[in-house]
Write a structure and sequence with these properties.
This protein is 28% helix and 33% strand. It has 123 residues and is an alpha+beta fold. The protein has a single domain, classed as Gcn5-related N-acetyltransferase (GNAT) (Aminopeptidase). Strand 3, helix 2 and strand 4 form a beta-alpha-beta unit. The relative contact order is 0.17.
Length: 123
């Protein structure tokens, strides 16, 4: 799985389907306005499909953790989260999982993790 992601990061390809079995993920190298109102590069996770026989076994969780660990951008954007279970999971992950050092931000229907620090207005 790691090799598949690294090949994508170093390629000139802007978007692709990745197939780290049993997960299929459509990813994109995105440029978006961050919560600091500046443009940033994100790894966009736009579509996720897990074989029904392998759901709720941690495959997407492992993929997401790997992305967080090795992605070279300013954050990760999980797009259009319409699955209520996934939305709840992402909220819990952002609050409690020590592998996620960034702040998770629910901007429904999307979810962001940003590696940069947003300056606070009261600073």
């Amino acid at each position: 799985m790691e090799e598949i992601l690294i090949r994508f990061f170093i390629s000139y390809t802007r978007n692709t389907w990745l197939y780290p079995e049993p997960v299929k993920v459509y990813v994109r190298k995105g440029l978006h306005l961050g919560t600091d109102r500046k443009m940033h590069h994100y790894l966009d996770i736009a579509n996720i499909t897990v074989d029904p026989r392998f759901r709720r076994q941690g495959h997407f969780k492992a993929f997401l953790a790997l992305c967080q660990e090795i992605q070279p951008y300013d954050g990760i954007k999980v797009e259009n989260v319409v699955n209520e279970d996934l939305c709840a999971y992402l909220r819990r992950l952002a609050l409690s999982d020590p592998r996620w050092t960034e702040t998770g931000i629910d901007i429904s229907p999307d979810f962001l993790w940003e590696t940069f620090q947003t300056e606070r207005a009261d600073s």
